[in-house]
Write a structure and sequence with these properties.
This protein is of the alpha/beta class. It folds into two domains: about 120 residues, no CATH class; about 100 residues, Rossmann fold (3-Layer(aba) Sandwich). The chain is built from 13 helices and eight strands. Helix 2 crosses helix 13 and helix 4 packs parallel to helix 13. The longest helix has 15 residues. It starts with a strand and ends with a helix.
């Protein structure tokens, strides 16, 4: 898989279709793999947090989730040309899994949310096999792992927020049945209808961050990571 470094964080350069081929080839090879979403906020945090930096770089697949990563790649004349968002990666995996007969498990979220997300996926992708759900409030780790393993899914989506979800996956995946693991944050809430995504216009232009900022002005501090991030990219480029 071709990757490039953005401020010392690895990022895949493939588009959705190329990633689908790679992911399902990994399932055929039973090659356990973690999908992580990379955005400017995470990259800036990773500069100060070595454990987060290791977590991101050790993942098998790092998707460019955020228009800032695309801009950074352009600034350094890289090969990342299209955004791959976490929620859309999940949906594409579900769509492809339905076609190929691969099984899926949903873990995380408040009680009832994963079940609603399952129902929505079954509406979106007829024939999809969502073979189990588990809310994120169960404390018995052995029970959670047993439920996942008994369902025998190929793909496990974990909704706990980052990096908690990725740390949970790394801690348990050697004892779990699934091959592909993705931390999906609030995606179950989106599918369940509890949280609305930005309108299509914002999704297509990569400006979902602006929509969320207008809806939640308190996010301004988080969004300041973007100009700081791009400035760091320019500084690094000028050093070369």
């Amino acid at each position: 898989m071709k990757k490039e470094r953005v401020l010392d964080i690895l990022v895949n350069t493939q588009n959705y279709d190329e990633l689908m081929e790679d992911v399902f080839a990994r399932i055929e090879r039973n090659e356990k793999s973690l999908v992580v979403a990379i955005n400017p906020e995470k990259i800036m945090k990773a500069k100060q947090d070595p454990s987060l930096r290791r977590l991101l770089n050790d993942a098998e697949i790092q998707i460019p989730d955020g228009i800032g990563v695309i801009l950074a790649s352009k600034l350094q004349q890289g090969d990342i040309t299209s955004r791959v968002t976490g929620v859309d990666m999940m949906l594409r995996l579900c769509e492809e899994a339905a076609k190929r007969g691969e099984r899926i498990f949903l873990y995380g979220g408040k009680p009832g949310v994963a079940e609603k997300a399952k129902a929505k996926l079954e509406t979106l992708y007829p024939g999809i096999q969502v073979v189990g759900t588990q809310d994120g409030y169960e404390k018995d780790e052995a029970l959670i792992c047993t439920r996942i393993n008994e369902a025998k899914p190929a793909i496990l989506f974990v909704a706990m927020g980052s990096p908690k979800q990725e740390n949970w996956i790394n801690e348990h995946r050697d004892q779990l049945h699934p091959t592909i693991y993705q931390g999906v944050g609030g995606s179950f809430d989106v599918l369940a209808g509890n949280v609305k995504r930005a309108p299509q216009m914002f999704q297509k232009t990569g400006t979902e961050w602006l929509y969320r900022l207008v809806k939640e002005p308190s996010r301004i501090k988080r969004q300041m990571a973007l100009p700081q991030f791009l400035l760091e990219v320019v500084k690094q480029k000028n050093k070369k």
